[in-house]
Design goal:
Layout (H helix, E strand, L loop, with lengths): L1 H25 L5 H7 L3 H24 L6 H23 L7 H26 L6 H17 L3
Helix pairs in contact: 3-4, 3-5, 3-6, 4-5
């Protein structure tokens, strides 16, 4: 009886660890600083801009979906910044004749935004705060990039 219980316990623990690890990989995004520093190429800039677009759209959507009246303006502002990053991705791609359309850029940004959304859900489940950790650090990098694009300090 004890052997049967131990065998089932080990099997259940292994399954839980497998699913927890699989879920953690679903939430994974490479360190954004590493991405930015990896190379200076148009295709990398396109990815950086699409990642920022996805992040801002995801955070903006979270604010808009919160139902709080004080979040609507900030949510709309973030969605607008996300759209501007998509346009920047398309414009920089044109400089090297890369085949990036607004539709393809938005599709990639939505996919990245879903990853950020899952990260925020996981953050909230673990800590009670959705916008912490990687989300905040990536957002700060994107804000710096956004200011550089706009020519602001």
């Amino acid at each position: 009886m004890k052997l049967y219980f131990m065998k089932n316990f080990i099997m259940m623990t292994s399954l839980l660890l497998f699913f927890n690890n699989a879920n953690a990989q679903d939430l994974y995004l490479r360190n954004f600083n590493e991405v930015i520093k990896q190379e200076e190429s148009v295709s990398n800039y396109v990815y950086i801009f699409e990642r920022c677009a996805g992040l801002f759209a995801s955070v903006g959507n979270r604010f808009l979906s919160s139902g709080r009246s004080d979040s609507k303006g900030l949510g709309n502002q973030m969605m607008t910044i996300g759209t501007e990053f998509n346009l920047a991705a398309v414009n920089i791609a044109k400089t090297q004749n890369l085949n990036v359309t607004i539709e393809s850029s938005m599709k990639k940004a939505v996919g990245i935004g879903k990853i950020y959304s899952n990260i925020m859900d996981d953050n909230h489940n673990r800590t009670g705060n959705a916008i912490i950790g990687q989300v905040v650090s990536d957002q700060n990098l994107c804000i710096t990039i956004y200011k550089a694009i706009k020519g602001k300090k």
